[in-house]
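Entry 14. Ran structure prediction on the chain below.
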Amino acid sequence: MSHQPLSSDAVRARLVARRDELRQRLSRVSTDLHHDNVQLSTDFADRASETGNEPVLERIGQSAQEELSQIDAALHRLDLGQYRRCSVCHGQIESARLEAVPYAVTCRRCA
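Output, C-alpha cells:
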C-alpha cells in the first residue's frame, strides 16, 4: 500500500502539536507529583493513600519526556533535511511508518 509523504510543513505541524500535548502532560504530572493542587494530610495512612499514585505518575512523566526528546530530534532532522532518511541504511523511511511513528529514525527493514 503506497502512502504519499506528508509535506515538511504538515510533518512539522504534527510534531509540534504532539510536542505541545506532551509539554502539557508533563506540566500536569509535575503539578500532581508536587501536590501543588492539594494539601497533603498529616495522617500517615491518609498521606499514603494520597501519594499512592506517584510511581505511576513518575512513569507517565518519564515516558512523556522520552517521547518529547524523540520529537525534538525529529524536528532537528527535519531542519537538516534528513527526516525521512534511515539512520542505519540511509535509505528512505516508509511514509506509512512515519505516519504511525512520526519520530522513527529507521526504516521498517532496519527497525
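The chain has a mean pLDDT of 84. Will compare against last week's run tomorrow.
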